[in-house]
Structure formats: C-alpha cells, structure tokens
Description:
Layout lengths: L12 H11 L12 E2 L2 E2 L2 E2 L2 E2 H9 L16 H14 L10 H12 L1 H15 L15 H13 L2 H18 L5 H18 L1
Antiparallel strand pairs: 1-2, 3-4
Amino acid sequence: MLNKNEKYNDLPLDYLKRTLNYEGGMTKNPKDSGNWYGGKLYGTNRGITMGALAKAQKEGLVSRDVTIESLTTDLESVRKIYEVNYYRRSKANLLPHTLSFAHFDACVNSGIGGGARFLQSTINKLLPYNHKKLTVDGGIGPVTLNALAIVLANNEITEIAKIYNNYRENLIVTSKKINPIFKKGLINRINSVRKYTD
C-alpha cells in the first residue's frame, strides 16, 4: 500500500499495473498517430510506441532485439522504459503520491511536455496571489519544483491532483488534434485516475 504524500524514487508496481491496464496490448489502428513511425505503421504495445522503443534502444535502456510485438511478454523492458523514460524523466519520482500517479499517467498519455504543462498550470492556479506565476513551458526544473513546494505547503494533495486532472480533461474535451473516436476512452481513463487520486 502506498502512502499519500510520500515520494517514491522507483516506479511503484501499482502505478505500472494501472497504466498498463489503461494502455492495453498490441494495437495497429491506422487512425492513431502514435502507431506510426517514420511513415510506417508499427503499432503500439502496452502503450509503448515505436518512437519510444527506438529511443530506449538508442539510450541502451533495452536491447536492440526488442520489438513492439515482443513487449507483449517482455515485461522487464516495458518496466524499464516506463520507469526511466516516463516516471523519472517526467520528475514524477519527485512528486508526492497521489499527484505523482496523476502526473506519470498524464506523461505516458500526453507526453512529458504535456504532463509538465498540466502540472505548471495547476501550480499557477494554486500559488498565492502575490507569488510570480510560472511560465507554462513544459519543462520541470528547480523553479517549477520550488513553486510546487509552496503549493504543497498550503493545499491538500487530493485538491492538487483534482485540479491537475481537470486541466487534463479540459484539454481532451477542447482539443481539435485528438481524433473524436478516442475522446470517450481518454475521459474514462481520467475518471479512473480521479478515483485513485481522490
């Protein structure tokens, strides 16, 4: 059982299981832009695109022998990619539970820059009126983390996660870039994240 407000340096297994449940298995839907890489339809497996796999291979994180298809059974490569290239790279490991899960899942679903913009927008909404607002630039560094510390000192973690999830949902509802056939599933995913983070 994870403790609310505690930080976890390693990707909690519960986070990974939940996100993999949302992501599902192998898919090659040509209407999903994430299934394409270099003009070719590779598909996505366990939420990992060919672009994400190629990056992990280039970094030496996983073997060059790993394929999109092999991720069905190669759970260690899946875990490494999520832990290093999403959980830690997004700085979710520096956030307290349950905000860390909301942020990690958003970064998996919307990219690290997208998740960072949700976090920065949330912080700006909750900063005291006399505090300088963050530039919403999609990068989490010392300025964002210092502002988050101020927000955490004055707000309950569940309230912060709630506002974060609201920003995420609003983007999906209003986005013209997201194919309408995927919007209902994305909203269902956010509602599931809400139940976990409330």
